[in-house]
Design goal:
4 helices, phosphopantetheine, lipid biosynthesis
Length: 81
């Protein structure tokens, strides 16, 4: 999956799950500061990413994710395993 494909899927997930406008979801967007996610939302996002990749996300792998670009990188890592 390309970065753009992951970004498109992430935009859909964030819109459908958290009602975030897709135009706000850019690689530079910070999950907590710009998109107003909180720690509970981060757990929900991790669950959605598990569904997307078919792989279990370890909490330590997700704790350093701060931006949409970080999420894209994490999805690439999960899919490479």
């Amino acid at each position: 999956m390309s970065d753009q494909e992951i970004l498109d899927k992430l935009r859909t997930i964030l819109h459908d799950t958290f009602e975030i406008e897709v135009t706000r979801v850019t690689p530079e967007a910070q999950l907590f500061a710009d998109l107003d996610l909180d720690s509970i939302d981060a757990v929900d996002l991790a669950i959605q990413l598990q569904k997307l990749t078919g792989k279990r996300i370890q909490p330590q792998d997700f704790k350093d994710i701060r931006s949409v670009a970080d999420v894209i990188s994490a999805v690439h890592r999960l899919m490479a395993v």
